[in-house]
Amino acid sequence: MANRFCVSLTHAKDNPDKATVGFVIANAAVGSGKETLVFLSVEGVRLAQKGYADDVREEGFTPLRELIENFAKAGGTIFVCSPCFKKRKLDEHNLVASAAIVGGAKLVEFLSEGSTCVSY
């Protein structure tokens, strides 16, 4: 069984439920000892910006800001799709902890070395 887990997340404030659940699952994976990656693409790249998720709170869930912070503190990695990030003209100097702007080859490398991946 692979010791890697990937959550591909394409949503942010456009669908806060999916964004929140994606990070809930990512935290469960990293908490289970899996090498865990969250891949942010499309609108999801906005979550890589400090302060963006501060006001996102889905009923019944931990606030999204805390989920992102907890994921980073637990050793999770966040890859941010470079073209998606640039298209939205976001600030590469304002990234949350554990986030790195990468090209698609980094995701392919992670997945090709044995990883389950879920998408939200």
The total beta strand count reads 5
What is the gyration radius calculated from CA atoms?
Answer: 13 Å
Give the helices and strands as they follow along the chain.
Answer: EHEHEHEHE
Overall average pLDDT:
97
Q: How far from one another are the termini?
A: 23 Å
Per the CATH scheme, the topology name is Hypothetical Protein Ychn, Chain: A
Unreliable parts = none
Task: Give the total of domains.
Answer: 1
CATH level-4 homologous superfamily: DsrEFH-like
**Which CATH first-tier class would you pick?**
Alpha Beta
Biggest beta-sheet profile: 5 strands, parallel
Structural write-up:
- It is a single chain.
- The protein is α/β, with parallel strands linked by helices.
- The protein has one domain: DsrEFH-like (Hypothetical Protein Ychn, Chain: A).
- It has four helices and five strands; from the N terminus they run E-H-E-H-E-H-E-H-E.
- The protein has helices spanning 16-31, 64-73, 82-87, 104-112, and strands at 4-9, 35-40, 77-81, 99-102, 116-119.
- Strands 4-3-2-1-5 form a five-stranded parallel beta sheet.
- Helix 1 (16-31) links the parallel strand 1 (4-9) and strand 2.
- The longest helix is centred in the first third of the chain and has 16 residues, at 16-31.
- The protein starts with a strand and ends with a strand.
Keywords for this entry:
4 helices; Hypothetical Protein Ychn, Chain: A; 120 residues; 5 strands; alpha/beta; 5-stranded parallel β-sheet
In a few lines, what is going on in this structure?
The protein has 120 residues and is an alpha/beta fold. It has helices at 16-31, 64-73, 82-87, 104-112, and strands at 4-9, 35-40, 77-81, 99-102, 116-119.
